[in-house]
Amino acid sequence: MNLRFEPSRALTGKLRAPADKSISHRAALLGAMASEPVHIEGYLDAADTTSTLDAVRALGALVEIGEHEVIVRGTGLRDAHEPDGLIDVGNAGTLMRLLPGWLAAQDGRNFTLDGDESIRRRPVDRIAVPLRQMGAQIDARDGRFSPFQIHGARLRAISYELDVASAQVKSCVLLAGLAAEGATTVGEPARSRDHTERMLLAAGVAIHRNGRHVTVVDTDELALERLVVPGDPSSAAFMVAAGVLVPGSRLLISNVGVNWTRTGFLRILRRMQGIVLGDLEDESGELIAEEPISDLDVAHGQLEGTVVEGDEVPLAIDELPLVALLGCFAEGETVVHGAQELRVKEIDRIAGVVDGLRGLGADIEASHDGFAVRGSGGLRGGVIDAQGDHRMAMMGAIAGLASKEGVEVIGMEAAAVSYPGFVDDLAQLCS
Ligand code: S3P
Fold this sequence. Notes:
By secondary structure, the protein is an alpha/beta fold. The chain has twelve helices and 23 strands. The strands form six sheets. The protein has a four-stranded mixed β-sheet. A four-stranded mixed β-sheet has the order 4-5-3-14, with helices on one face. Strands 6-7-9-8 form a four-stranded mixed β-sheet. The two termini are 22 Å apart. The structure holds shikimate-3-phosphate. Shikimate-3-phosphate (S3P) binds next to helix 5.
């Protein structure tokens, strides 16, 4: 589906942020790992998170989808069923990287995971290495891609240092650690999102953080009754960008998750002089179980360029395409360093964003680990191909609203992976 987004008049009104994708995946997985039913309020109804519900069903969990909640009746930590066929993760990288942590601990059972074309290009060796150290056997295509097999085993605890700050890999090792004898520790080079840690703490697991290290001790079962999924700051970020870029706009976005590990984009935007008010969580060493939320009050204003360094990257990883877009409208230069991880997202997001925005008139260049944009008073417009990537599709739409001549997005349906109501929500704010 190709859609045109014309230059917009001011965006105004109030919007509730769609549910958080990362937290929804984790809620369904922990629900499946629990022995008692888990009630999940506000579960994201989108393609990626539906893949997770299908996966846990295939593993023996019962899933009831109600109007206000999803109830997952799990199998328990060590009793996932061996499915008849392969588990299809669709387009969901988080499912592909977190689920194996649980499956690796299913002693004597075998599982095969596969997904769509994009998933087949994304590396799984980063989880295979620690899971093998813990005692599982993992066989991946060409040693590092889907489809791959997991042969579950009795796991042993390990201490593992990640090469890249990845919440997916960290979470995978922590989930495996739940059923591995002893204390499993994961260290990361920079802080990444900590939803798994918070949810495990809420589930009564012995877990603690010490700087950039997290330790989890094996447990018999997870004690979770109810989980509430907050709004997704990464989805809300598109609306925030629209509000900041389209002259005259003033938006209120409610129920946004403001966990410090997810609000890097809002801090970068504030540094660019963007007007966004909200009660953001402060950085804290101490691990807490809650996921704080806030309303965001956004207004249009002139932006200034900024520099984003490596430590900030994991805290804004999914919003970096929007930083590039904002940079096109800012005074001076906007530079992102240390973001080579973008090359292994749904597409190579450095190449995709740079080529896509350049096609709309941006003065932007790629580097091996990021990009540099020189603000040139906005964007002309044109055509952008989402290449099947939800965040490229949504970035193209926002670019269109703020452009001089409008933007046609090729493959707008990709947005359904994380934000199925995106176009309707935008239309509501523009009307
Ligand atoms: C995610 C972590 C990030 C992010 C992805 C979701 C998660 O990936 O890009 O969209 O839910 O843990 P990495 O951990 O690979 O950086």
